[in-house]
């Protein structure tokens, strides 16, 4: 399927994935790997463009009811899984690869899976680094850098991000 099958314009709204997805403004999609989109993906590419990339052999999976704000960059070189009811704030970056080695002694993997659980809210200007899992119902405070796993049901923040406090989440409650 060519580029036109992935992204097309209909009455001023861009569509991506199934018909219930909405893209507004500038959204750039680089699909060399696999991108799977759940129901109700909403992306706002205004005033800053959104960049979504899945390189050859990579998987990028969006759950249902995902909201991506302006200026977000998501780049999958291995696998990024974003759960249901996730909200991603403006100018946030999510990468599963370091793309290059720091020095000649660095022999580790360049790419590590990123998993963002269900009902997660990621604030503005955050950076989510390779190998991270963010647990269900958690909130990542604005301007945080997540370089280690964050458990579920917590507010986490800082650089590097650390749990600040536990959140009370009733069973079945979804963040609006």
TrEMBL record:
Recorded GO cellular component terms are: cytosol
Q: What InterPro entries does this protein's entry cite?
A: Hexapep, Hexapeptide_acetyltransf, Trimer_LpxA-like_sf
Which positions, given as ranges, span the membrane? none
GO MF terms here are: O-acyltransferase activity
Tell me the keywords, alphabetical order.
Transferase
Is Transferase one of the keywords? yes
Q: One short Pfam family name for this protein?
A: Hexapep
Q: Which domain of life is it from?
A: Bacteria
Question: Is the keyword Transferase assigned to this protein?
Answer: yes
Entries under PANTHER family matching the protein: ACETYLTRANSFERASE C18B11.09C-RELATED, SIALIC ACID SYNTHASE-RELATED
Q: What protein family is recorded? A: Belongs to the transferase hexapeptide repeat family.
What protein name does the entry list?
Answer: Maltose O-acetyltransferase
Originating organism: Cohnella lupini
């Amino acid at each position: 399927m060519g580029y036109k099958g992935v992204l097309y314009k209909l009455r001023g709204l861009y569509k991506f994935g199934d018909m219930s997805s909405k893209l507004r403004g500038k959204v750039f999609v680089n699909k060399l790997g696999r991108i799977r989109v759940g129901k109700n993906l909403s992306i706002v590419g205004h005033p800053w463009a959104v960049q979504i990339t899945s390189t050859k052999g990579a998987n990028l999976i969006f759950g249902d009811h995902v909201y991506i704000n302006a200026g977000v960059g998501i780049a999958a070189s291995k696998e990024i899984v974003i759960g249901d009811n996730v909200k991603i704030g403006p100018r946030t970056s999510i990468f599963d690869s370091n793309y290059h080695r720091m020095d000649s002694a660095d022999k580790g993997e360049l790419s590590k899976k990123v998993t963002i659980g269900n009902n997660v809210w990621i604030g503005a200007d955050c950076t989510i680094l390779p190998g991270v899992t963010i647990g269900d119902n958690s909130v990542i405070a604005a301007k945080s850098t997540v370089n280690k796993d964050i458990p579920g049901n917590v507010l986490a923040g800082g650089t590097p991000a650390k749990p600040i406090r536990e959140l009370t989440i009733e069973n079945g409650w979804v963040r609006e």
